[in-house]
Amino acid sequence: MMNNIDRTIPPKIQPIEPFSLPKPRSTKLTNGTPVFYFDNPNLDLIHILLQVRTGSLYQPKKHVCNFAYTLLKESSPKLSSEDISEKLDYFGVNVTVNVGMDNVQVLISAPKNNLGQILPDIAEFLISPVYRERNLNILQDKEVKNLAYKEQKTDYCAWRIMWREMLGETFPAVSDFATTASIRSVTTKDLQDFHRFSFCAENLTVFVTGNTDKITEKLIEDTWESVPKGVPAPELPIIPMQEHPGGLFRQSMENCFQSSIVLCSLSMDFNDPERTAFSVLNTLTGNYFSSRLMQSLRERQGLTYGISSSNTFFGRQSVFAIFSDVNAKSTDRAVESCFEELQRLQDELVSSEELNMVKNYMAGLQLRAADTTVNAMLKFAYWQRFGLDETEMFRYLSEIKKISPDEILKLAKKHFSYTKFTRIIVGE
């Protein structure tokens, strides 16, 4: 018979014991592409991450980057998309593509014994794709239907307003401002030109983890040495984003039982000295289940199922946003409650007990984010984008420990002033 567990009593917090992250081996290919190896003799499923310095911020017109990289698996110069799909399945290989604002990641996972039989086929469609009209038309049809569906959703419309106010409606990176015309305007030539511009040795970094040996590593290095040299992507400029102190934007949608709210403001560079301290403030505010906003809007008032806050980093900038879907009849009350909590953080010192709970939660997240060599590789790749390495983990954990209630109060006063926020409401 199981003992009854009192779930109101949290488990005992254990101190973090000393540990070390794997430091990757590195080499540079003849075309200048860096390769980082994270050794794991127990992992026979080889993971190869290609990080490309490109993204929607680099595209000359809307949708081009997303379409060019989404269609890669269907653009083999020799094989049909059906043939590629069958070969990937047969050899137990997975290829996923993630397109961001300032980077694209291609993650390949394949059994070590099958890598030599499938990697040449993968390299062909990644390095020398041939975009076909039929495949592009199918994707465009899908995107047009998806757009019609998303335009009926309050959350999509709220995010669209946010990016419109931050970046401007004509900015090429903002694919949220899609129209049927903008989707249909993309051509195979657009995709071919963008791929040629972006997928070059100067923009590529390769990360590998698994039970590699000399034969496997030679295969990997020979493959990516064939990526042609080109023009490196320029450093992203500071985008002159539009600020609307105290701005309120409402969009009505009929027959809505809920409204979507976004409260957003311009934020900081990833390498800003205050970034770690602000991440603690952000977590305390709305980035975990026991945050101030969750406690107020969900637990005490029942206005929402969930509310969150986050920084979206791109280039040398970021946007801070609080987002929630709330009961339509209580929309204005929900917005007021958000600002009441932001004001409370500016007026009252957070207790040491609450702050320590947030610090322990964040430390645990960091440890779980690097608890395997695959996760460690992904974290390292993320840090590399900002010129950092594996020591960032220990700097981050050490800095979190030092943050005081006074520092949280000062940061809240600096960043959470009511006049800094654009308020967006979509719904009834």
Structure explained in plain terms:
With 428 residues, the protein is of the alpha+beta class. It folds into two domains: 25-225, Metalloenzyme, LuxS/M16 peptidase-like (Cytochrome Bc1 Complex, Chain A, domain 1), CATH 3.30.830.10; 248-427, Metalloenzyme, LuxS/M16 peptidase-like (Cytochrome Bc1 Complex, Chain A, domain 1, 2-Layer Sandwich). It has helices spanning 64-70, 81-90, 115-127, 133-150, 154-167, 180-184, 188-198, 214-225, 275-286, 292-300, 331-347, 352-368, 373-384, 392-402, 405-415; strands at 25-28, 34-39, 45-52, 94-99, 104-111, 204-210, 248-252, 258-266, 304-314, 317-327, 422-427. The strands form two sheets. The chain has a six-stranded mixed beta sheet. Strands 7-11-8-10-9 form a five-stranded mixed beta sheet, with helices on both faces. Strand 9 (304-314) and strand 10 form a beta hairpin. Helix 3 runs parallel beside helix 8 and helix 12 (352-368) packs antiparallel against helix 14.
Characteristic terms for this protein:
single chain, about 425 residues, alpha+beta, Cytochrome Bc1 Complex, Chain A, domain 1, six-stranded mixed sheet, five-stranded mixed sheet, about 20% strand, globular
